[in-house]
Each structure stands twice: as structure tokens, then as C-alpha cells.
């Protein structure tokens, strides 16, 4: 999904790692390598700036001097993974735009943390959400919360590292596990040496790369099928534009109730009490800046969700006019986006590399 690790799409299938015969051009490799080098450079810059004088507060909390803009983009980026970038368009392609109503949950899901959770955490001058558990209950509860978070994030990071690595393997033949190892090394270096400030500013850069990669797919894809108006017409004719589904049956794939109300609790778990987000809130220079950063996530999340939905609709319109090959039609649903991107961006040096960089940008971050 556009926000979290809870994306409905499965991981790319290991049974078919040769998703396409297309290979990267030299320009594509340059674009991709630049993503890694610039991410590493941002971390090293903050690491060597004031080398030997870093305090625990600077490394873990960015000295509580961050503005709302970088914190907002970092909050957005933390759980915008490659799984979401590949999974949400596939969901729209297969089942229509009902999934878009998840955006209705964003308002309450961000308003509640902004006015309930952030003031409490900020005024207690905490560095961890789990400190609050010890203050409110006892140390045993704090340890249980911490262990649960670590377990959750280890599983999550394994998935989001593997997905883009498999995509890179598919289009370039680059060794799968070497790709995973490279991602892990780059993330560990700039996180360990640069601290939270390096992580936040790297998130800002990588968020912009994600936007550019998705925007390139939308622009090129819609241009090849006759514009966004035509895309909408084709999707409407084939029943892919969904209205409000108010069926209370919990066994229906997506309804307004499950997306809007279920999404609120999902958002609360991610933007209210998740340590990755709480630590970013607490790095803000003031409580007001922390609240504003939470507000700023709302339009950004809506934009990300809309872009993912548009990619799914453009992909649907494209394959109505350009039928999938046998290999494509037999592929796992979560591979559809990768096939589509290769189909429309081939012959445009740099853009396939930008999209793979977009996928890796969804994985080049570790919650501290």
C-alpha cells in the first residue's frame, strides 16, 4: 500500500527471476549508482561534520533541531516501501480503484497522533516510545514492546530489501543476494555514522527520487495510450472505476468500512506509536514543528496513493490495447508493474534506471 508494510501484494516470485530480457543501458546504471552514492554521501557528510564531537542526542535525536519539512518527508518515506510501489498499482489493475478509499483513513489517522500522541511524547522529553511504557506501566511492559518492535521490523526490512533486489535481478541479471547485501551495507553505513539527521535528509532525497520515478511512469505510460482522459474512459468502460462500496460484509475484498475505519487503526499504529515515527517527531525543534510535520504528511500520503492508483489505471489501459505476452500473463500479479515499466520505458535511456532507483529508494532506509 502507499503507506505501510501492510501492502496486499505478495513478494515477487522467485520462480521467475527473468522478468524481462531488457537490460539496463549505461545511462540506467549511472542513474542507479548515483542513487546509492548520493545516499551514502549525505550520510558521510553528516558523519564527518563535527567528527569526534557527536553526542548521543545528536546521533539519536538530531539534537532536536529538525524543521517540519524534512521530518514530514522522512515520516512519509519510512513506510513507503518497494512492496507498496509494486503492489498498489497491481491491486488497482486487477480490482479497480476501491482501494483508493484507504485515503479516507489518513485524516483521522494523522489528526489523532498530532493532537494526542505527539504532545505527550514531546512534553515528557522522551527519546523512545517505549520509555513511555515504562513510565506508564513498568519495565517488563517496556521490554515486551521493544522486543515486539524489533521482531516486526526485522521481518519488514527483510521483505522490503528483497523485493527491489529481485526487480534489479530481473532487469539486469545483477546477483540477487549481492544486491541485498549492497543495500544493507549502504544503509548501515550512513545510519550508524551519520545518525538520525543523516537518515532524515537521506529520506528527503530518496522521497524525491520515488516521486520522480512514479511520475515518469505515469507521464510516459499515459502518453502512449492517448492521455489520462483516455485512460479514465477505458477504465470506466471496463468497470475499474469504483464508487462507495458500503457492504458491511467483512469477507468482501475492499469496502469503504474496512478501508476507512480499519485504515485509521493501521495509521495509528504507524504514525502514533511506532518508534521509527516517534523518533522523527521528537527530533523536531519544537512541539509545533512536530505537529506540523504530521499535518504535512496528509497531503503527501494522498499524492502518493493517487500516483500509485494512476499507474494501475494507466497499466490497465495500456494492456487493453497491447495484450500481455504469454510470459507476462502467467507471471505473479506483483510482477505486472515491472513488466509494464519495462514495456513502456524501453528505448528511453535513464528512465528504467530511475524507476529501479525509485524501488530502491523505498528500501534504502532503516528505522533507528
- The level 1 CATH classification is Mainly Alpha
Report the helical percentage: over 70%
Tell me the count of domains. 1
Shape: globular
Q: Runs with pLDDT <50, length 5+?
A: 1-21
CATH superfamily: Sodium/glucose cotransporter
- CATH topology tier name: Sodium/glucose cotransporter
Q: Sheet with the most strands?
A: none
Element-by-element helix/strand order: HHHHHHHHHHHHHHH
Rounded to the nearest angstrom, the radius of gyration is 21 Å
Whole-number mean pLDDT: 82
Alpha-carbon distance between the two ends: 22 Å
Beta percentage is under 5%
Total strands: 0
User: What CATH architecture do you see?
Assistant: Up-down Bundle
Structural class: mainly alpha
Number of helices: 15
Brief characterization of the structure:
The protein has 15 helices and no strands. With 368 residues, it is mainly alpha-helical.
Task: Name some characteristics of this structure.
about 375 residues; mainly alpha; Sodium/glucose cotransporter; 15 helices; globular
Amino acid at each position: 500500500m502507499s503507506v505501510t508494510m501492510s501492502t496486499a501484494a505478495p513478494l515477487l516470485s522467485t520462480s521467475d527471476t527473468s522478468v524481462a530480457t531488457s537490460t539496463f543501458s549505461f545511462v540506467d546504471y549511472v542513474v542507479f549508482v548515483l542513487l546509492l552514492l548520493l545516499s551514502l554521501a549525505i550520510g558521510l557528510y553528516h558523519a564527518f561534520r563535527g567528527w569526534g564531537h557527536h553526542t548521543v542526542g545528536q546521533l539519536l535525536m538530531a539534537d532536536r533541531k529538525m524543521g517540519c519539512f524534512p521530518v514530514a518527508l522522512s515520516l512519509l518515506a519510512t513506510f513507503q516501501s518497494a512492496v507498496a510501489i509494486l503492489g498498489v498499482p497491481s491491486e488497482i489493475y486487477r480490482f479497480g480503484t476501491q482501494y483508493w478509499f484507504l485515503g479516507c483513513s489518513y485524516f483521522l489517522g494523522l489528526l489523532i497522533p498530532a493532537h494526542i500522541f505527539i504532545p505527550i511524547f514531546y512534553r515528557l522529553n522522551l527519546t523512545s516510545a517505549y520509555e513511555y511504557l515504562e513510565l506508564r506501566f513498568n519495565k517488563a511492559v517496556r521490554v515486551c514492546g521493544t522486543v515486539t518492535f524489533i521482531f516486526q521490523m526485522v521481518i519488514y526490512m527483510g521483505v522490503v530489501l528483497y523485493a527491489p533486489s529481485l526487480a534489479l535481478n530481473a532487469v539486469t541479471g545483477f546477483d540477487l543476494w549481492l544486491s541485498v547485501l549492497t543495500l544493507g551495507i549502504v544503509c548501515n553505513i550512513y545510519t550508524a555514522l551519520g545518525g538520525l539527521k543523516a537518515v532524515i535528509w537521506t529520506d528527503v532525497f530518496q522521497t524525491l527520487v520515488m516521486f520522480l520515478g512514479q511520475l515518469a511512469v505515469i507521464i510516459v505510460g499515459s502518453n502512449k495510450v492517448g492521455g489520462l482522459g483516455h485512460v479514465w474512459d477505458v477504465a470506466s468502460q471496463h468497470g475499474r472505476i469504483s464508487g462507495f462500496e458500503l457492504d458491511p460484509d467483512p469477507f468482501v475484498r475492499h469496502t469503504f468500512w474496512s478501508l476507512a475505519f480499519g485504515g485509521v487503526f493501521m495509521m495509528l499504529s504507524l504514525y502514533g506509536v511506532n518508534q521509527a515515527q516517534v523518533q522523527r517527531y521528537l527530533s523536531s525543534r519544537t512541539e509545533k514543528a512536530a505537529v506540523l510535520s504530521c499535518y504535512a504528511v496528509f497531503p503527501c500520503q494522498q499524492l502518493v496513493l493517487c500516483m500509485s492508483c494512476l499507474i494501475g489505471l494507466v497499466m490497465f489501459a495500456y494492456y487493453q490495447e497491447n495484450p500481455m505476452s504469454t510470459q507476462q500473463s502467467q507471471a505473479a500479479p506483483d510482477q505486472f508493474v515491472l513488466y509494464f515499466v519495462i514495456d513502456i520505458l524501453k528505448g528511453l535511456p535513464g528512465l528504467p534506471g530511475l524507476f529501479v532507483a525509485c524501488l530502491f529508494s523505498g528500501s534504502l532506509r532503516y528505522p533507528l
